[in-house]
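WARN retry 2 of 3 for item q-0093 after timeout on previous attempt; input resubmitted unchanged.
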Amino acid sequence: MFIQTESTPNPATLKFLPGQTVLDAGTADFPTADSAGSSPLATRIFAVSGVAGVFFGNDFVTVTKSEAIEWDHIKPAILGAIMEHYQSGQPIVSAGEEQASGHAEHLGENSEIVDQIKDLLDSRVRPAVAQDGGDITFHGFDRGVVYLHMQGACAGCPSSTLTLKMGIENLLRHYIPEVTEVRPVAV
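OK item q-0093 returned
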């Protein structure tokens, strides 16, 4: 097994490509070691000292490190953990743990606008940010303001504010006149 790595716009994250499917559908975000209980792979990666977050996409694993550690010190251990996991035959995420679209539900008022927002995010935004090892999901819509949740490499990325304001906000405002602003949320 050969695992490739790619840098991301966030210097604290690295994208690992195992050359096979990680998740069949959706994404999985493990922002802390305590949240990794449903994933044998995430648990194994968090066992490496200095790992601060783990995120799974369709064909990649994004790992966020703590500030105090250098990639040169933990990258070999992370590669080893991923390789050991795939050789173990264990599931990536325990059975019964469904991976959703990632978008928050929105019922009632503005549901047509919200559906348009989600469609644009799914077709134009999420594929692009997945290339960088992250994900951006819909969190809410209130009085013209779209609230988005940033995951993986996008969470804490120095360029995420620029991506939100110049990229996503402009895109949504262009296609959906009711959108006036885009803001990040911490979940």
